[in-house]
Amino acid sequence: MDNSVKDRCRDTVLVDAFKESAMEFCCPAQVLVLDRQNGPADTIADLVSRLLEGQVSTLLTTNREDALYALSCYEFDVVMIGVEDNALDQLSLLPDLKAQHDTLPVIVVGRNMQRDDLERCRFHGVREMVELPQRAAELKALVTGIAGRFVEHA
Q1: What is the C-alpha to C-alpha distance for residues 72 and 122, in angstroms, rounded to an integer?
Q2: Which of 9, 30, 42, 140 is a plausible cystine mate for 35, CB 3.0–4.6 Å?
Q3: Domain around 110
Q4: pLDDT in tens, 65-95
Q5: The sheet that has 128-131: what strands, in order across it?
Q6: What is the DSSP string of 25-82?
Q7: Which CATH number characterizes residue 130's domain?
Q8: Domain annotation covers residue 24
Q9: Is residue 146 classed as helix, strand or coil in its secondary structure?
């Protein structure tokens, strides 16, 4: 047997051995959160990541510029935006999301959302807008529902 045949046989054995010893690898769902710390979207994302232990990875950004920078550097599976009465205008990210990341799912989580907020969300193609529940049972149902969707996207 010449050397080239021996090399090919050795390479085949190494590849087969590698395939047998390779572990299955699964990346967690990547979630970008645009909110203040402990805001409505941050709260839901934190609860979902705790519920799914290791299946969800979140990155919290507190302003539009940091969110845009993160979107340019990383690939996310979903974006969560927090909306509150006294918070900065987090919805200003929506036009950029629609223009640059049209297929990226967006969930807007609000506390006391106004009609104008809902209209802006619809205008920019946001399909999921939820009010942060006050009751524990409603919060549990919301977190469980969102967690199920994160697992589907991952």
Answers
A1: 24
A2: 42
A3: 29-153
A4: 999 999 999 999 999 999 987 665 888 888 9
A5: 56-61, 29-34, 78-84, 106-111, 128-131
A6: --PPEEEEEES-TTSHHHHHHHHHHHHTTTSEEEEEE-SHHHHHHHHHHS--SEEEEE
A7: 3.40.50.2300
A8: no
A9: helix
